[in-house]
Design goal:
Blueprint: E1 12-16, H1 21-34, H2 41-52, E2 56-57, E3 63-65, E4 78-91, E5 99-109, H3 113-124, H4 130-137, H5 142-149
Parallel strand pairs: 1-4, 3-5
Antiparallel strand pairs: 2-3, 4-5
Pfam families: PTS_EIIA_2
Domain PTS EIIA type-2: 5-152
InterPro entries: PTrfase/Anion_transptr, PTS_EIIA_type-2_dom, PTS_SugarTrans_NitroReg
């Protein structure tokens, strides 16, 4: 039976100001940690993983990053969403020599490897939707983000 992923507005941040991708990751990971979805170790793990396995994804005008860390750092599954005030550069996941000007971060915290793969697969279709990405990048508040994304991920 197909499930619909339910987002938690407490881990959605709009207008994040950051100096670089690691600062943005730190802020969003701490949001997940403060909400109890991840262990304190997740914050360091997400940054360490980004340095080795970049997550920038060139998706047209609005670049996206999809960082995640190992399931051992996760208490319960959730996706945090960060809309950056100004884009920051993430290294391209397909070619680390290139960078992606990133405005939207979807930070995955999955406590089950199988669900992580299913969720990523279900999620990828949304990243092709330029209208959705444009609306997310221009969202002014958390409620706008929820309205745009809720019910979009079925796995």
């Amino acid at each position: 039976m197909e499930k619909i992923f339910k987002f938690d507005e407490t881990v959605i941040r709009v207008g994040i100001e950051s100096v670089d991708c690691y600062d943005a990751l730190d802020q969003l990971a701490n949001t997940l940690c403060n909400a109890g979805y991840v262990k304190r170790s997740y914050v360091e793990a997400i940054i360490a993983r980004e340095k080795i396995f970049p997550t920038g994804l060139p998706t047209g005008k609005y670049g996206v990053a999809i960082p995640h860390a190992d399931i051992c750092h996760v208490n319960s599954s959730m996706i945090a969403i960060g809309i950056l005030k100004d884009p920051v550069e993430f290294k391209n996941m397909g070619n680390i020599e290139d960078t992606v000007s990133t405005k939207i971060i979807f930070m995955l915290a999955m406590n089950n490897s199988e669900n992580q793969v299913k969720l990523l697969s279900a999620f990828m279709g949304n990243l092709q939707d330029q209208e959705l990405l444009k609306n997310l990048a221009e969202a002014k508040n958390v409620h706008s983000v929820i309205k745009l994304i809720d019910g979009k991920i079925k796995f």
